[in-house]
Amino acid sequence: MMIPDSYSLSAGVAWLFQPLDGPASKESIRIWWKERRIFYNIVVILTAVVSFLIYVALVFRSPRFLPLVDVVEPSTVLAFMIGGPIVWNLAYCLGPIIDIAVSAGKTKTVGPLLLKLALVVSLYLVSIPALDSCAVVFGFK
């Protein structure tokens, strides 16, 4: 696994979206995606945890919510706990498939663009609890 020389955030982000050097083979594309999977999952999981903590904090502080009723609505928890990981892993798993189909044998790959797209979709998905509770608390919903 290629790990950035520096452990700064900017070096990690630059490495995460660094395109392949030279012509892309199917195997080099697979390796590129495999090296980034753990970082992708860490970012999405941390965002999900922060989103859930914001959601819980707003539910307990807002008079618009019933604290113990609105925090653990079973259908929401089930969708978030099961559906979220399925969708964010699907978003990631489609990346190498599309990248290989489009980029194999070419000098420029679409991997970095697809990874950014997968991150945007996944981060939006796991941010829905916080965004929804903010909308309720601040009167947008």
- Alpha-beta content class: mainly alpha
Shape: elongated
Q: Compute the average pLDDT.
A: 82
The poorly predicted ranges are: none
Radius of gyration (CA) equals 19 Å
> What amount of the residues lies in strands?
under 5%
Number of helices: 5
Order of helices and strands: HHHHH
Biggest sheet features:
none
Residue share in helix: over 70%
- Intertermini distance: 45 Å
Total individual domains = 1
Q: Got a strand count? A: 0
Query: Oligomeric state of the chains?
Result: single chain
Write the topology of this structure.
Blueprint: H1 9-16, H2 26-61, H3 67-71, H4 74-103, H5 111-137
Notable features of this structure?
about 140 residues; mainly alpha; 5 helices; elongated
Give your account of this protein's structure.
The structure is a single chain. This protein is mainly α. The protein has one domain. It is 75% helix and 0% strand. The chain contains five helices and no strands. Helix 2 (26-61) runs parallel beside helix 5 (111-137) and helix 4 packs antiparallel against helix 5 (111-137). The N and C termini lie far apart (45 Å). The mean pLDDT is 82.
